[in-house]
Amino acid sequence: MRLVLAHTYPLRRTRRAAAMTKGRGVDLLGVAADLTELYTAAEHLVPETVLLSEDMTTVPEFEVMRALFSALNISCVLLRERPANGDNPMSRGLPVVSPVDDPDRFISHVRQAAATKVGRMPGKAAAPTAKATTRPQVVRPAVRGQVFRDKSLIMVGASTGGVDALISVLGAFPKDCPPTLVVQHTGGKFAASLIRLLAGRCAAQVVAAEDGAVPDRGHIYLMPDGDAHLALAAGASPRMTRDTAPAVGGHRPAIDVLFRSGRPFAAHVAAAILTGMGRDGAAGMLELSRAGATTIAQDEATSIVYGMPRVAWEIGAAGKRLPVDRIGHALLAACTALPAGSR
């Protein structure tokens, strides 16, 4: 079993690594002290299994890790060294092992747990803020021969559960899709990793947004860090800008900032708000909608956390509520030019 170990605490990390090397049938490829080191190890060493301390799953960056594991078919096993403290949607569905003194017995437990491959985050059919059903696995290709209107723009915002949702939505886009601006609540250190991950799953080019650049067809833009908001500068034509205003609702980049910046171009904008906790993006989407944009919220059944899209729907910001596997096509349809003589 080719394995990478990740643990927050140095002494425990050393102890676990020593136990793994004493056991039979394990090739310990590397040891990571944090998620940044783990992402690099998983991306370059491509282990069969990752064993990581459960506390590492409580930060937003773990969502990017989980999507990477799924993309590379890496098993993820959690090491639980203390009782679980409530439900964590980021680690939901992952196999768990507890430490035992005998190395061979512990490795056997890890091997058995690793037989469960990590997949998309399953939902929870309980509290209204976290209800979901099985997420769609297949994205239908975009309609061939679509012709998109000049000046059309797409905006997408997401938070908890959003990486999988973005893969579903953006994976439906053709390589000549309308320029698309995306805000995903992810720690700044993992923004570049998210761009690389999406780039490997999308036909369009996924790149870092550059200050002053004009959004171009066939490109999907995200902020490369958490130092500024992604926004459009006011003017005759849209240009991206790094808005260095303070965090909004604890987020930078914030979805509300992106959506509000699109108001001058709303007649050409199609916007979607995906799964996520809180209400970021709902108020901005309402302003976009009132200015003439097409607006869509992800439905409750396919949301990992039905927070942001719920607020957007309840305040009347979203004109449609759709399952995640239909949102990409709906955004493209809103930007598609009507055939001659159909008006």
From TrEMBL:
| Enzyme Commission identifier(s) | 3.1.1.61
What residues does the CheB-type methylesterase domain cover? 147-338
Q: Which Gene Ontology BP annotations are present? A: chemotaxis
- Which UniProt keywords are present, listed alphabetically? Chemotaxis, Hydrolase
Keyword Transcription among UniProt keywords: no
PROSITE patterns named among the record's database cross-references: CHEB
Q: Which Pfam family, any one of them, does this sequence belong to?
A: CheB_methylest
- Show the InterPro entries listed in the entry: CheB_C (IPR035909), Sig_transdc_resp-reg_Me-estase (IPR000673)
Which terms does the record give in the GO molecular function aspect? phosphorelay response regulator activity; protein-glutamate methylesterase activity
One GO CC term, this protein: cytoplasm
Tell me which residues this entry annotates as catalytic: 159, 185, 280
Quickly give the catalysed reaction: [protein]-L-glutamate 5-O-methyl ester + H2O = L-glutamyl-[protein] + methanol + H(+)
For this entry, the protein name equals protein-glutamate methylesterase
Native species: Roseisalinus antarcticus
